[in-house]
Amino acid sequence: MSKGKKEISPNLMLITLIGIVSFFADMTYESARSMIPQYFTYILGGSVFALGIVIGIGDFLGYSFRSVSGKISDRTRNYWGMMFLGYTINLFAVPLLALANNYIIASILIIMERMGRATRIPPRDYVISTVASENKIGYSFALQNLLDQAGAVIGPLIISIILFYKYSYRDAFLFLGVPAILSILFLYMSYRYSKKEINFEYRRKIEKGIKKKHLMYYFVGIGLSAAGIFSISFILVLAQGFLQQYEVILIFTLAMVGEGIFGFIFGIAYDKIGKEIIIIGPILAILIILMVNFHNILIYMFLGLLFGSFTGVNDTVTRSVVANYIEETNRGSVFGTLNTSYGYGLLVSSIFIGYFFDKISIVIVYVIILQITSIIVLLKFFKKVNFDK
């Protein structure tokens, strides 16, 4: 080996392997998300309000159940077992959507997919947080998120090509069984590698952690921002009214590009700047709602990028704060509670916006009010905690 060449550490290799698992997982379920709004409404005959309810319940359970999953993971210490269970439910509900002949069956499968994802995310985040270098926690989550989003970009691009060549949505859902199987295979490889190569070193005690009474400001602020987001599902339904099917999928693809790139950037920025970068999320949500009335393909492609940037903040920065300032023994539970607050927000957002979908002026006012309130609460959190110095 030449002088100066650095080997990849075993811990970084494990994070990379977990990122590859996420790559194929996201190729599966994010591809499904790119089709579900159109499939649900235009093919299976469900209303936009019904779509909002199903997506809202799915996201709520998909986030709120993470508190249960986190607590089970912490109590049993069987993090890998929870990951295997979650990935299996999460991924194999997707190709089964090809067999759904009405929106009720599709709704059950959509909710199953979200529940599986809820089961495996807290233990996965715990594993990443315990093998990441203490001064590179943001980087570690950003690396996993970047690989995650690479799959979320490539998958919908393949779906766009499938639809461009006039294959059906059902054909596309069946195809997604392939990356689902690959994700499980790489999860098994990650598990075997962790047993042979990784030393989980004892971490120093966190001296400037977040007090429990201050965490509520954090949970509420993140939840309010989620409650005020005009989600990608609604953006896709609007786009379906004036664009081709494959063009709508491209909007979703750009959302995944934005989440991957900006999630990585925000993760690195967190290591340099700190927790205050979370404020970017509510600002992006306000920009999104102010642009949805401009029915232009370029505007909607840009909206996809903006939505991806919003989710990029939540996928990296919010988790990094927990990893930095919460002791390992409670971290799985706190990850779960954080995701529960986010899930409550998404439930409220999906039902409210789905109901007022045709009254966009009401939705605009609602979103702006909630995002400004979110910023105020998060600023209160920063002031109360003041744990940097």
Helix and strand arrangement:
Elements: H1 10-43, H2 48-76, H3 79-92, H4 103-131, H5 137-164, H6 169-175, H7 177-197, H8 212-227, H9 232-240, H10 245-272, H11 280-291, H12 297-325, H13 328-355, H14 360-385
Query: Helical proportion?
Result: over 70%
How many alpha or pi helices?
14
Residue-averaged pLDDT: 86
Name the shape in a single word.
Answer: globular
Order of helices and strands: HHHHHHHHHHHHHH
As a whole number of angstroms, the C-alpha radius of gyration is: 20 Å
Largest β-sheet summary:
none
Work out the strand percent. Answer: under 5%
Low-pLDDT parts are none
Report the end-to-end length measured between terminal Cα atoms.
Answer: 42 Å
Structural class: mainly alpha
Q: How many strands appear in the DSSP assignment?
A: 0
Keyphrases for this structure?
389 residues, mainly alpha, 14 helices
